[in-house]
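One chain is below:
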Amino acid sequence: MKYDEFITKVGGRADVSLRAADALTAATLQTLAERISGGEAAQLATYLPDELEPHLTGAEELAQSFDSQEFVRRVAERAGTDADRAETGIRAVFATLREETPREQLRDVLTQLSKDYSSLVGAKA
């Protein structure tokens, strides 16, 4: 999938402009890269459009431990939006990741997240 298609899908799912979809996607991937191991984030990046790779690479190898509420707070801050819009955007990004990432890869990512993330990311792959 191309970058424009990815952002268009996120924007449609979140019912936001392409500019907002871009900001929400970047913020979600950057925050995800902090929450999962650096190796897992880099592996996920290989399945996504090249333009999204910088948001997932360069993170610390050791994952930070924070709950889903903190995840939403960080995404909202990075995207310059409120928590409700951030939650909708996070769900849209993960729905798009489900379509574009091999099931095994997404499962490896999701297993690093605690159960309180299920409302944001959907069922485990």
